[in-house]
Amino acid sequence: MEEVFRLWVYLSRTPLLWLTATLVAYAAADWISARLRRTPLANPVLLAVVILVLLLAATGTEYRVYFDGAQFVHFMLGPATVALAVPLVREARQIRRLLLPVIAALLGGSITSAVTAVAVGWLLGADPATLASLAPKSVTTPIAMSIAQSIGGIPALTAVCVILTGIIGAVFLSPLMRAIGVSDEAAQGFAAGVAAHGIGTARAFQIGELAGTFAGLGLALNGIATSILVPLLARLLR
Q1: 186: closest CA among 212, 167, 168?
Q2: Do the beta carbons of residue 161 and residue 190 sit within 8 Å?
Q3: Given this model, what pLDDT does residue 11 score?
């Protein structure tokens, strides 16, 4: 116990405390998810977010203080996204075979995601800055925040929308696919990557390597497509 106490004293005085808390929260969430047989409702990211929110509320810690310590995890989003190229190389032949369906699904998913988000926000009376923040919600966080800032949105709000979109996509991916009769792993994975970015991709890898590979492809291509389409949409609406 004395060694544990010394470790706590050391961590509490350094930014490592919240990095450690983030990693421990995710490990605990993943353990819970595994014990519940990876049911979609027990998504590790969702559970980890709940654990961290409760911890921050219980300790009265501001988000800025938390992020100062945990920002290394945010930094690793870039390398983790690039690492998705490894399974893409393995499945390059199948990707080339499905190139036309992939392009069609990408354009449909990217346009639908941005247009429906903006349309719903507009119907609910959202201001222009909020609408701009909602448009890139289905791409990975660094890209989404950059797009939002370039079109007059609020990057912090976009980050929240991105995380919520990813969690919702990961939770409802499998039940929705079963409900509409889609059993092909490549189709499930690509839909997850386009609609729910990195969190959806993580869920797709739980379905299978092929699903995860196509989710990574969808994540990457949707980042490119949204970076082009959303600014064009913003100009048309001005």
Answers
A1: 212
A2: no
A3: 56
pTM of the model: 0.75
d(CA 2, CA 32): 28
pLDDT of res. 221: 87
Distance, CA of 90 to chain centre: 23
Using alpha carbons, select from 90, 104, 112 the residue that is nearest to residue 216. 90
Q: Computed over its alpha carbons, how large is the radius of gyration of the chain?
A: 19
What number is the average pLDDT over the span 203-232? 87
State yes or no: pLDDT of 96 exceeds 90: no
Is residue 167 within 8 A of residue 43, CB to CB? The reply is yes
- Name the nearest CA neighbour of 151 among 224, 208, 88, 226: 226
Q: What 3-state class would DSSP assign to 76?
A: coil
